[in-house]
Amino acid sequence: MAVDGKHSSDPVRGMSFPIGATILPDGVNFSVYSRHATALELLLFDHVDAAAPAHIIHFDPQYNRTFSYWHLFVPGIRAGQIYGLRAHGPYEPLLGMRFDPAKVLLDPYGRGVAVPKKYSRKAACMPGDNTLQAMKSVIVDVSRYDWEDDAPLRRSFDDTIIYEMHVRGFTRNPNSGVASQKRGTYAGLIEKIPYLQSLGITAVELLPIFQFDPQDAPEGHVNYWGYSPVSFFAPHVQYSMSGDPVAAVDEFRDMVKALHRADIEVILDVVYNHTAEDDEKGPTYSFRGLENEAYYILDRDRAHYANYSGTGNTLNSNHAMVRRLILDSLHFWVEKMHVDGFRFDLAAILSRDEHGAPLANPPILWDIETDPVLAGVKLIAEAWDAAGLYQVGSFLGDHWKEWNGRFRDDIRAFVKSDPGMVEEVASRFFASPDLYGAENLGPEQSINFVTCHDGFTLNDLVSYNQKHNWENGEENRDGSNDNLSWNCGVEGPTEDREIEQLRQRQIKNFFAITLLSLGVPMLLMGDEVRRTQHGNNNGYCQDNEIAWFDWALCDRYADMHKFVRKLVKFRRELSIFHDGHGLSLTELLHFARIEWHGVELFNPDKSNDSRSLALTFRGASEAFHVMANFYWEPLDFALPPPPRRSPTGWRRVLDTGLSSPEDFCLLVDAPPVSGERYQVGPRTVVLLATEMQTLPPQPIPMLPGSR
């Protein structure tokens, strides 16, 4: 080991494990993976904005390297120390190697990232030294925190209602009521926990909070969503109230602890499919400069990157080192940060080999599936990628649940009155047995959603036929062109009262179907108050009012807000959604008493022209009858007689065609429904329900000769 170019008289070898920067009683051990580097330097900085390191420590290949791991121990340094790496080696793109000793590199295992005032993505792309403009790693002591007996909640998926949200966007708006220094931070989210509790959701799914590159966006824009990671261990420092990388770790943990106290789980949206280093023209931040051919899937010419993520590069997730990195990252967020689960962005990529071909048994997916640390953790896959690999209904393993993209598409098409959707919707309503019924999987396999961060909000889904992404700076080329949306007659905002009433009804329809379907419902932040992005279906670079939660909408659309709260409460109290705990979907549907109808009993119309469906379902404690009419005229539906064990008969719990407060009533307050038919208005969902008397225990029959 050498310090500032001069060899130390007492070289300290250090240890190859643990990987990263590990605090020991009298200093810090560093271990870095690089198989092809010819030399490595540790840079110690006095300040993140320093133009040069205060100390340069050279790894001696004889003393400080074991196989592919470079390691050394530095006495006397502690938490808060800012550091970086420089790696020397061949720059031979045709061989897959892109070493650049002019670039300051982040530690792939760093627990904190410091961002200088003059940080520049361009400087990391251009030739030359970028010390002044480079992000740097920070040593963090993750063992020093008082969790106060906190632990992951381990709630069953049967009892889960997910709320997908953005940490910054939730409270960044000045009308959030949060103090200015807390807006858009982990601390700001804590202040709004009472709102989440009142809504009734049981888990928040946070858009990426790993440190990401805010400059990975078109000129004049910033990366807002966060799907541009530079670290898999460090919480995003810009979401910290203090702006300090060390404090950010505890501020994140304060948020987790506060959410757990409110009985709300924390699920992280994680990006293990690509990084912010982009394609061959992109910046060198870390992985590319340390071991390019290990961390990325390369094209056949080795000079270009495979792009199954749509972002320029693809992590080589089934390489042994990358597998270790992913597992270590997941362990860190569970063991040290107490998160309850993960939603894996473009998870189908994790099934690709080093050449990009799909594997029948991907090692990394089996690693995660069988890992004992992750055994009680929620694992959710976005089971597709940007190159057409679509694995919804066939994603590996029993532990993984799936974002059900078929639910989203089929329910959108049905509600907008597309033909030929009745049979598809019947399957989606009961957790998609056509997708999940053959594998002995439970109904919770299906994560049901109509909207998410990617695409229109629910308000915009019923207000726009076309995307309006001009403000993204990409001439409206970005974002999906296939939205299955319908503007109800006018593109964008309108003063037309009839169109507004129709839009309000359609939004209620989407909520009703999502929250009354078997499976795990997921709601998008702000949909409950009709948050709009003004037709922008790709707000990834809009860190402004377009993408932020507008808290004024809570008053403007108070009726919708109330409707959703009551519907969530109703779902959580229904035993129907919990009766099947431990049963596979096939077993549950076998024992369930489901009766399908059309406008006439036991005669469902599955023809291409049909736009209506009804069903009766009887559980242990309640029964309900659902009628969905997405024809543009009212229809009279025949009603089944109430169950014999019903003490009250049918009660009208929900009718999306009625105004508040008649649109939804809790069962105890719901008005009775008599007669043999019920008129369901156009584009309307109706739910009738009744409690069931509990049957007394039946005596065991005596056998002949017994006493």
Termini separation comes to 88 Å
| CATH class term of the largest domain | Alpha Beta
Structural category is alpha/beta
CATH architecture term of the largest domain: Alpha-Beta Barrel
Give the helix proportion (percent range). Answer: 10-25%
Unreliable spans: 1-11, 697-707
- What form results from the Cα inertia axes? elongated
What is the CATH superfamily of the largest domain?
A: Glycosidases
Number of domains: 3
Number of strands: 28
Question: Strand percentage, roughly?
Answer: 15-25%
Key structural traits:
single chain; 707 residues; alpha/beta; Immunoglobulin-like; TIM Barrel; 3 domains; 16 helices; disordered N terminus; disordered C terminus
What does this structure look like?
The chain has 707 residues and is α/β, with parallel strands linked by helices. It has three domains: 2-138, Immunoglobulins (Immunoglobulin-like, Sandwich); 157-577, Glycosidases (TIM Barrel, Alpha-Beta Barrel); 592-691, Immunoglobulin-like, CATH 2.60.40.1180. It is 21% helix and 18% strand. The protein contains 16 helices and 28 strands. The strands form six sheets. An eight-stranded parallel beta barrel has the order 14-15-16-17-18-19-20-21. A seven-stranded antiparallel sheet has the order 2-1-6-5-9-13-12. Strand 23 (612-618) and strand 24 form a beta hairpin. Helix 13 runs parallel beside helix 15 (558-573). It is elongated and about 90 Å long. The relative contact order is 0.08.
